[in-house]
Design a protein that fits this description.
Shape: globular
Protein name: CPBP family intramembrane metalloprotease
Oligomer: single chain
Radius of gyration: 20 Å
Strand order of the largest sheet: 2-4-3
InterPro entries: Rce1/LyrA-like_dom
Number of helices: 12
Helix content: 55-70%
GO biological process, one term: proteolysis
GO molecular function, one term: endopeptidase activity
Keywords: Hydrolase, Membrane, Metalloprotease, Protease, Transmembrane, Transmembrane helix
Number of domains: 1
């Protein structure tokens, strides 16, 4: 018996809609300090209000902007914990994994593996003959960036993973109890929510294939591993190392990174490199290390939902 969704009491999809609305409200509340600071800084400089997310990030010192932007995710995470505890009567462990406790070794392995790959590909890009990356290192600014990133970015990525690969996976399972259904919908929504990112405006909607594909990859490793640990580690490494290593005038994260991309972004093979090569490579490594099997059943099979609650606990099991 393989546990997938450990849900208690309030399991109808409507409760997940309510919970999602509360989390969104929490996110907006968390954005208020950033908005106030940006408005005050803009008025002080005598400039017009920022017209897009990039201009908003640049209204303040980049480290302060990053901190205030990530603060909204800390508030959202607090609301999420309250929703899980009081609305659904669950524990964070139950949303995270089917194991008896969260496997921190899995999180660390995934984090280190993707972190090393990210560093390697960045170094290769920098030293390639056609590189347009410039060395951008400023010791004091980078040190503060590192502190903010290490403390805050894992909160941001964890919020996204808990919502999509944990909470909404459970929710969509109530609508149609087959594993492919929550996998598909959470991947689509995860990708489409990035539609406002500045790189979409620069390169076009084709970039959404990358975000949807990334959501699909994270959903696959969550279902195959019966837990979110690998997805949590991957997402934290992806955003943290991206913020520390490379920035550009058009990226979602405006930071004092080690390198700065100076060229105008273009759609090329590097956009699809993760989807076509790196993500399949990670799936192979994870499957061998954690001995995954029965892919069809784990990714498309039924989710058996009992009609009775035992000890006021509701579980969806896959047998």
């Amino acid at each position: 018996m393989q546990k997938l969704f450990g849900v208690e009491k309030k399991v109808e999809f409507g409760w997940y809609i309510l919970g999602s609305i509360l989390i969104i409200i929490g996110t907006f509340l968390g954005q208020i300090p950033f908005g106030i600071a940006a408005v005050m800084a803009t008025l002080k400089k005598g400039k017009g209000m920022p017209s897009d997310s990039v201009a908003l990030m640049q209204a303040l010192d980049l480290n302060l902007s990053l901190f205030l932007m990530l603060l909204s995710f800390a508030v959202a995470f607090g609301v999420f914990v309250l929703v899980i505890k009081y609305l659904h009567k669950q524990t964070i462990r139950a949303v995270t994994t089917s194991r008896t406790k969260i496997d921190w070794k899995r999180i660390l392995f995934s984090f280190c593996l993707w972190g090393m790959i990210t560093v390697l590909t960045t170094v290769i890009s920098y030293y390639s003959s056609d590189s347009t990356m410039e060395w951008n290192f400023n010791p004091s600014q980078f040190a503060l960036l590192a502190v903010i990133g290490i403390l805050m970015i894992p909160i941001q990525t964890s919020v996204e993973e808990y919502i999509f690969r944990g909470y909404l996976m459970q929710g969509f399972a109530q609508l149609y109890p087959r594993r492919w259904f929550p996998l598909l919908w959470t991947s689509l929504i995860f990708g489409l929510l990035h539609i406002a990112n500045p790189e979409i405006a620069e390169m076009g909607y084709i970039v959404l294939f990358y975000y949807i594909g990334t959501g699909l990859f994270l959903g696959i490793i969550t279902l195959m591993d019966e837990g979110m640990e690998l997805a949590l580690g991957f997402h934290a490494a992806n955003n943290l190392f991206t913020a520390l290593l490379v920035t550009s005038h058009w990226s979602a994260f405006q930071t004092y990174a080690l390198f700065k991309e100076t060229a105008k972004p273009q759609v090329g093979f590097e956009l699809f490199l993760p989807l076509l090569i790196l993500f399949p490579l990670l799936l192979f490594i994870f499957s061998k290390k954690y001995q995954w099997n029965d892919w069809k059943m784990r990714l498309t099979g039924p989710i058996y939902i009992p009609t009775t609650l035992k000890n006021q606990t509701y579980e969806s099991d896959l047998s």
